[in-house]
Design brief:
Helix content: under 10%
Strand content: 35-45%
Strand order of the largest sheet: 1-2-5-8-11-14-17-20-23-26-29-32
Number of helices: 7
Structural class: mainly beta
Shape: elongated
Distance between the termini: 48 Å
Mean pLDDT: 91
Radius of gyration: 31 Å
Length: 726
């Protein structure tokens, strides 16, 4: 984390609306802490100012009035000797020199500090000379986020940092010309230290897409020459397309390049060079290149690493990279300056869409452990930390054994299943299976049962559970669901400390044991109907309790499962607003090879007793009636969700949304809704098929991981899991 943060909700902010260049200059000259200079849509000439300083809780903000139509700064923007300044929603177009220039005013010992640039576009800056998109000279504690820089001076950089310290460049895009490339994309030199590049996209971004170090005149080092061009700089979670050499280590004393995806480097993958050779400067050394995915052609990448004189290539580490030769699948990994540890060669990495330069990995890619999709910082960037304590959840399959024939009349075991043979519709005709008592691993408040029962047309069953406190007796049997044709029978829905909440049991106290039974009857003339109990599942849960998170191997994953999208809104208008659950069910059934019309699935899943389509265990039983087994569970952590996606298992998630909690959703709020989680992007955000969209073509969306954490995991994490067909 960077040692500073901007406060976006400024209680004492003063907005100054401006519409001309002169008004911008006047506002900058008068700005004090908390001033927001808001530029109206239009064109502006060159803007320059010095000594513009806000404070930690009230930065000075220069921003566009409408993020959708940012003001066009056609002469560039220069700020000198500034502090606590924020630039947002601006477009800098066609500057004759640098697009944005922020510096220390030539005072090498007093840098500009606390600069935040976000959601800014810089395009077509400079000419053939050393002109940059964004130039930072003597700037400390800075952030550049969600910016786009396109086409800058042929001798310059998209971002050029000279003597900058403690900064980050995150989620930015840099794109230049492939046929006439500029010198570099992002460059860190002149004593730059502790700068991190993450989640960026480089498309033909100069001859050297990232220059870790460089060549700086001694008079320009900040605060003074210390024997290196750059130190403690890193590149992670980024994607590189093209460039003569995507990565160059140049006079650097320690740099790391990890978890990046490289596609089609044009000549070299990496260069190790020494351009500053003044006395006291260390040779280029101590670079790390690890956990990357490199997809290349043998004709372009004839030499993977170019090593120049005056360097220490033996000090470099290469480890755990995945190499894919696109035109020769049998080609060995390229030669490197030092022996690589645990590197692998793979076949087709299964990018989502190479033609569209979409280099995300499919869920079944052999390269999921490598490159940008595997970047572990994705969880951190989503505003989450790795979970060490999680809510208690234990999901167990009931042992389909017969503990007592007295408690299970007309039931028998057959190949690990229970066959129920009722003889009619009367109470005396029922067939019953009663499970062994099940001891939970931890006291629980909620009990979520689900079942898969093969049921002939003229038969039916009901499911009941009972619970017990530690050292106490079992409660009465509680009715939790039924299926098929049944006689009219009383239903107990509440007992001491426990109540059926439509489709699960919720306790006002904790219990430590549970038991389940299935009771079956037949109707009609035939007397030999048989029902087969194939799966019975109990999920014990206590959202208030916290337990140690289990170790789940694999780490973050990126990719989307190919679950066919559907929309509930295209169905019968009389029920379209109520069938999110069967629509989600239909999507995953189709994924499992059991495609059926959504309206038919809705009719099958309908719970007439409660007049709803979203009864959890009934939906699972409906899926089983189409040949796909499954169960109801609760997901306690994102690590568990990622493990399911890694196993190619979609998750039908039950969410509840208050106003503003789920950004980008086709609804503002909902008391209850079902969606299908199909994967994650490289930033840890969540791929979803949302049935509430107006058209199936719009169903594939991405929701912020932090938002779904609130509306799903923190509300219990309830989910249906539909397994492969047997």
């Amino acid at each position: 984390m960077l040692p500073f943060a901007f406060t976006f909700a400024l209680l004492c902010a003063t907005d100054v609306s401006v519409a001309t260049t002169a008004e911008v200059h006047a506002a900058l000259a008068a700005a004090t802490s908390g001033t927001r200079i808001v530029l109206e849509v239009g064109d502006y000439d060159a803007i320059h100012a010095s000594n513009v300083r806000g404070d930690e809780n009230a930065p000075i903000v220069i921003c566009g009035a409408d993020p959708r139509a940012p003001p066009r700064l056609r002469g560039g923007l220069q700020l000198s000797s500034v502090g606590w300044v924020e630039l947002a929603h601006l477009s800098v177009i066609g500057a004759s020199g640098n697009g944005i220039n922020i510096d220390d005013g030539g005072k090498l010992d007093t840098p500009s500090r606390h600069v935040f640039i976000h959601d800014v576009t810089v395009r077509d800056s400079g000419g053939r000379g050393n002109d940059d998109g964004i130039k930072l000279s003597g700037v400390d504690d800075f952030r550049i986020e969600r910016c786009t820089v396109e086409r800058w001076g042929r001798g310059g950089s998209a971002i050029d940092m000279v003597g900058c310290h403690r900064g980050s460049v995150d989620a930015c895009t840099f794109q230049d010309r492939a046929d006439d490339p500029a010198a570099s994309g992002v460059q860190m030199k002149g004593g730059t230290r502790a700068v991190r590049i993450t989640r960026c996209r480089f498309v033909h971004a100069g001859q050297r897409a990232v220059n870790l170090g460089g060549s700086t005149g001694l008079d320009y080092f900040r605060p003074r020459p210390e024997g290196f061009e750059a130190r403690d700089v890193s590149v992670e979670g980024s994607v590189f397309i093209g460039s003569q050499a995507p990565i160059a280590f140049v006079g650097v004393d320690g740099a790391s390049v990890r978890w990046n995806t490289f596609y089609s480097p044009q000549k070299w993958l990496v260069r190790i060079l020494q351009e500053t050779r003044a006395e006291g400067f260390v040779p280029c050394r101590a670079g790390v290149f690890a956990d990357n995915l490199v997809a290349y052609t043998s004709t372009e990448l004839t030499t993977a690493v170019n090593v120049g004189s005056g360097t220490e290539p033996d000090s470099f580490t290469f480890a755990r990279n995945a190499w894919c030769c696109l035109d020769d699948a049998d080609r060995k990994a390229p030669s490197l300056p030092t022996q690589e540890k645990d590197g692998v060669c793979i076949g087709d990495p299964r990018f989502e869409d190479v033609a569209a330069l979409d280099l995300r990995l499919a869920a079944d890619s052999p390269a999921l452990r490598y490159g940008a999709d595997a970047w572990p910082g994705g969880v951190e960037k989503a505003g989450l930390e790795l979970e060490t304590q999680i809510p208690f959840v234990e999901t167990r399959t009931v042992d389909l054994a017969l503990p007592s024939t007295a408690e299970s009349p007309r039931a028998r075991v057959s190949v690990g299943k229970i066959v129920l043979s009722p003889t009619g519709p009367r109470a005396s005709d029922e067939a019953t299976f009663t499970s062994l008592p099940m001891q939970a691993a931890h006291p629980f408040r909620d009990l979520l049962p689900s079942w898969n029962v093969t049921t002939p047309q003229h038969a039916g069953f009901r499911v009941e559970v009972r619970v017990a406190r530690a050292g106490g007796d079992f409660s009465e049997w509680l009715f939790v669901g039924d299926w098929g044709r049944l006689p009219e029978l009383p239903k107990t829905l509440e007992t001491d400390g426990a109540k059926v909440a439509t489709d699960f049991v919720s306790g006002t106290t904790t219990f430590d044991r549970a038991q389940v039974r299935v009771r079956a009857w037949s109707t009609g003339n035939a007397k030999d109907f048989e029902l087969t109990l194939e799966r019975l599942t109990l999920c014990f849960s206590d959202r208030e309790a916290r337990v140690d998170a289990p170790h789940i191997p694999g780490g973050p994953i990126a990719g989307r499962l190919p679950v066919p999208p559907r929309s509930q809104k295209v169905e019968d208008a009389a029920i379209a607003g109520r069938i999110c659950s069967p629509t989600s069910l239909a999507m995953v059934l189709a994924y499992r090879g059991a495609s059926h019309p959504t309206i038919d699935i809705a009719k099958t899943a309908f719970d007439s007793s409660n007049d709803i389509y979203g009864n959890w265990p009934r939906n699972v039983q409906a899926a089983f009636s189409y040949g796909v087994p499954g169960y109801v569970t609760r997901i306690a952590s994102w690590a568990e969700a990622e493990a399911l996606i890694r196993a190619r298992q979609p998750i039908i998630a039950s969410i509840a949304v208050k106003e503003g909690q789920l950004r980008g959703a086709p609804y503002a709020k909902t008391a209850g809704h079902l969606i299908v989680i199909t994967g994650f992007d490289i930033h840890g955000n969540v791929h979803v098929n949302d049935p509430a969209v107006s058209d199936p073509a719009l169903a594939k969306v991405v929701y912020a991981r932090s938002d779904l954490d609130v509306v799903w995991l923190q509300r219990g994490g309830t989910a249906y899991i539909l397994l492969e067909k047997p």
